[in-house]
Design goal:
two-stranded antiparallel sheet, 10 strands, about 60% strand
Length: about 150
């Protein structure tokens, strides 16, 4: 596990440093709690919002596997202030028992931004397709994220 620590630390720092460009759309940082089966399960999540109801989400997972992933997400308003549904695609790499896991992932979910407090909540379904070390499809990856929205 020690041999992968610099990789995860540098990846997380890169995600944090890229948050500066989103001044109009502040970044948010928090925790994601999930089912234990996928690579990107329980994790630290950083969402960097972009103009046009889009975002990049970086995930640093500390579940059964250590993993890091990135998702490109699109948000659609549900005609209620702060309430959206979203979908997206991305990829991940993870490590467990001296094996490397990687592949594409998708996401679909509901998202809510509180107006009075700097809090974002989302509930999502995030299937993953392991391409290595063997082909495996994890369909039921449900997660709940709570993020602090930076001013």
């Amino acid at each position: 596990m020690k041999e992968y620590s610099p990789f995860f630390f540098l990846s997380f720092l890169l995600l944090m440093s890229s948050a500066g460009y989103a001044q109009k759309n502040p970044p948010s940082l928090g925790l994601r709690l999930s089912t234990p089966y996928p690579t990107l399960s329980n994790a630290i999540t950083l969402r960097i919002n972009a103009p046009g109801e889009k975002a990049l989400e970086g995930i640093f997972s500390f579940g059964e596997r250590l993993g890091v992933g990135m998702l490109y997400e699109k948000f659609i308003s549900l005609k209620s202030p702060g309430f959206y549904w979203f979908y997206g695609v991305g990829g991940y790499v993870g490590f467990e028992s001296k094996q490397t896991y990687f592949g594409p992932t998708g996401i679909v979910g509901l998202d809510y931004n509180f107006r009075e407090i700097p809090l974002n909540l989302s509930l999502d379904l995030k299937p993953e397709l392991d391409l290595a070390p063997k082909l495996s499809f994890i369909v039921y990856s449900v997660g709940l994220s709570a993020r602090y929205v930076f001013p």
